[in-house]
């Protein structure tokens, strides 16, 4: 219990002019866990990830990484310190091969340019895309793009992986493969925080879940606790069904 | 890989041996190839690798050439031929310093905005060099003949340009293989993602511009000496800026060999094939550029490799 959480946010608030995108959110991601972040579209999930990774400065509140205050840091500092992010819309470097993409993750990752080829190979293997290594990233299927996105983030040897809807657009078999890969990543010592719309995926894999709606945290707990929470059922589950087709 | 190194060594041996074996006109064509190949490759360190297209790189030729011009005219009373290597180095260093100063505001701009801003910087700097009396770009500045007595000037400048091409190829090949170069590629492909992957994007962009300006400045200073007399109009030339882009585009952007190939094709075309038809040559150059952009956006190398990677050419993103 003495080890500080890998990531902790307290009273995190983000305002865009008049609009409050995130309003006083508290959460802690314990080391070695897989945590979930869910909420209807527009709830502020991506904003929360943008604040944590330094893409946006928070209006108020505090972010701590491994116990140290890091509020207002830059994406580069976040990356070097050990936070990697897989974007919701996979953003591979289109003109480079799969291997070149993953290699750049390894080159600039937490441990710097040490054993770059080893980190690249193991990330490719863990996501099962070593056969595609020499293919250009452009023209990959959605399933392969998602795996490349996660592999590139993983090659940086992060301590915390933020995965923004890693299963979006995947068929059930691909979703199962992605979940299995996330478990293997966690078993390899990487803490994971993921945004996911696929309820089956979230409930099956997460240790703790934070639910936000309209910028506020409305529930937090184990998957069982969250699923039984009337506020969650009212605010999220109905909305999620409506937005599934989107 | 070893075959590639052997080919490069062979190319440079042939270039260096040329004055002893081929007639002066052909030596001049080869010198021009070295000059343009090195310029296009220097441009590519920023434009090809990092995807930041400069439309005003002639500013570094101009600054590079005016530095020795001013040293000779204002400090050395028109002499100092034996100091040419130091003055060329000074041209490169001042160009690099100039790039470092403009880098901070300009590299915040992306894509076409950066391209246009560079065009403006080149225009304004050229105008200032002509308007400020102390610089004297309107009237012009003389540079001493730096060729040693034992060598014809054409042969001497040919050797210097071969040496500068070798330097530029070496630097570009190193950058391409280094972590720095991989970071530049990441910036070209998607700058926001590069930031997230902890690529030090701001530092790398500045380093690429400064390095590119240093090499371009060395070439500009040497070009000034080879002319013997420089004015604003002879070194701050928009067509110089355009040629660098055209060569890189023609050969294959983002590679080391591409700009050299593009320079070779364009120099042969303009000097040898169309040398007799001066009116036609601008027209032919323009037509060729249009044809290349339409038919082979990856350049000749891309066409040859037949590994079409659509959209991966580092086009400026608006």
UniProtKB/TrEMBL annotation, chain A:
Transmembrane segments: none
Pfam family, one: ABC_tran
Domain ABC transporter, residue spans: 7-239
SUPFAM superfamilies for this protein: P-loop containing nucleoside triphosphate hydrolases
SMART domains: AAA
CDD domains per record: ABC_Mj1267_LivG_branched
GO cellular component: plasma membrane
GO terms for biological process, alphabetical: D-alanine transmembrane transport; L-alanine transport; L-isoleucine import across plasma membrane; L-valine import across plasma membrane
One Gene Ontology molecular-function label: ATP binding
Keywords (A to Z) from UniProt: ATP-binding, Nucleotide-binding, Transport
InterPro entries according to UniProt: AAA+_ATPase, ABC_AA/LPS_Transport, ABC_transporter-like_ATP-bd, BCA_ABC_TP_C, P-loop_NTPase
PROSITE patterns attached to this UniProt entry: ABC_TRANSPORTER_2
Coiled-coil ranges (or none): none
PANTHER family with a match to the protein in the record: AMINO ACID ABC TRANSPORTER ATP-BINDING PROTEIN, CONSERVED COMPONENT OF ABC TRANSPORTER FOR NATURAL AMINO ACIDS-RELATED
Protein name in the entry: ABC transporter ATP-binding protein
Gene (name only): livG
Automatic annotation (TrEMBL), chain B:
Protein's cellular compartments: Cell membrane
Cellular component GO terms, alphabetical: plasma membrane
Superkingdom of the source species: Bacteria
InterPro entries to which the protein is assigned, alphabetical: ABC_transp_permease (IPR001851), LivM-like (IPR043428)
Regions that span the bilayer: 30-52, 59-76, 88-107, 156-175, 206-225, 245-270, 282-304
GO MF assignments: branched-chain amino acid transmembrane transporter activity
Keyword Membrane part of the UniProt annotation: yes
Keyword Thylakoid in annotation: no
Keywords linked to the UniProt accession: Cell membrane, Membrane, Transmembrane, Transmembrane helix
Topology versus the membrane: Multi-pass membrane protein
Pfam families (alphabetical): BPD_transp_2 (PF02653)
PANTHER family: HIGH-AFFINITY BRANCHED-CHAIN AMINO ACID TRANSPORT PROTEIN BRAE (PTHR30482:SF10), HIGH-AFFINITY BRANCHED-CHAIN AMINO ACID TRANSPORT SYSTEM PERMEASE (PTHR30482)
Protein name per UniProt: Branched-chain amino acid ABC transporter permease
Gene source species: Caldovatus sediminis
């Amino acid at each position: 219990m003495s080890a500080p959480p890998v990531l902790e946010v307290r009273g995190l608030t983000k305002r865009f002019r008049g609009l409050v995108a995130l309003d006083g959110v508290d959460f802690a991601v314990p080391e070695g866990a897989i945590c979930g972040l869910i909420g209807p579209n527009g709830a502020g999930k991506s904003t929360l990830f943008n604040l944590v990774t330094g893409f946006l400065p928070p209006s108020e509140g505090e972010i701590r990484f491994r116990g140290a205050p890091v509020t207002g840091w830059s994406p580069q500092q976040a990356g070097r310190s050990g936070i990697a992010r897989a974007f919701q819309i996979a953003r591979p470097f289109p003109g480079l091969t799969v291997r070149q993409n993953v290699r750049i993750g390894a080159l600039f990752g937490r441990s710097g340019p040490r054993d770059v080829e080893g980190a690249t190979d193991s990330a490719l293997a863990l996501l099962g895309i070593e056969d595609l290594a020499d293919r250009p990233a452009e023209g990959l299927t959605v399933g392969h793009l998602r795996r490349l996105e996660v592999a590139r983030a993983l090659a940086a040897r992060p301590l915390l992986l933020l995965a923004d809807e890693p299963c979006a657009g995947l068929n059930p078999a691909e979703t199962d493969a992605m979940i299995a890969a996330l478990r293997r990543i966690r078993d390899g010592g990487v803490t994971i925080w993921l945004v996911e719309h696929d309820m089956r995926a979230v409930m099956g894999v997460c240790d703790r879940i934070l639910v936000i709606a309209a910028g506020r945290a409305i529930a937090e707990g184990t998957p069982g606790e969250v699923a039984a929470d009337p506020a969650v059922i009212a605010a999220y589950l109905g909305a999620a069904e409506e937005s599934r087709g989107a | 890989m070893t075959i590639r190194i052997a080919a490069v060594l062979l190319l440079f041996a042939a270039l260096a041996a040329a004055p002893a074996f081929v007639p002066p006109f052909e030596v001049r064509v080869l010198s021009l190839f070295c000059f343009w190949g090195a310029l296009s490759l220097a441009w590519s360190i920023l434009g090809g690798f990092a995807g930041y297209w400069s439309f005003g790189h002639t500013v570094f030729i101009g600054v590079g050439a005016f530095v020795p011009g001013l040293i000779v005219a204002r400090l050395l009373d028109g002499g100092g031929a034996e100091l040419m290597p130091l003055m060329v180095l000074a041209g490169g260093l001042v160009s690099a310093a100039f790039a470092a100063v403009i880098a901070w505001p300009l590299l915040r701009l992306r894509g076409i905005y950066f391209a246009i801003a560079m065009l403006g910087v080149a225009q304004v700097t050229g105008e200032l060099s002509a308007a400020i009396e102390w610089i004297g770009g309107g009237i012009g500045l003389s540079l001493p003949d730096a060729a040693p007595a034992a060598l014809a000037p054409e042969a001497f400048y040919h050797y210097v340009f071969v040496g500068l091409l070798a330097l530029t190829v070496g630097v570009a090949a190193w950058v391409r293989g280094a972590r720095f170069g991989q970071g530049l590629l990441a910036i070209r492909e998607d700058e926001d993602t590069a930031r997230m992957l902890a690529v030090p994007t701001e530092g790398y962009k500045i380093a690429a511009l400064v390095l590119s300006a240093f090499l371009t400045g060395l070439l500009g200073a040497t070009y000034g000496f080879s002319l013997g007399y420089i004015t604003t109009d002879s070194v701050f030339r928009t067509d110089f800026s355009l040629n660098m882009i055209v060569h890189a585009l023609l050969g294959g952007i983002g590679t080391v060999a591409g700009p050299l190939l593009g320079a070779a094709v364009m120099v042969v075309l303009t000097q040898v094939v169309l040398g007799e038809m001066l009116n036609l040559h601008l027209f032919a150059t323009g037509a060729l550029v249009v044809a290349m952009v339409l038919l082979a956006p990856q350049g000749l190398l891309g066409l040859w490799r037949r590994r079409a990677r659509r959209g991966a050419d580092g086009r400026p993103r608006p």
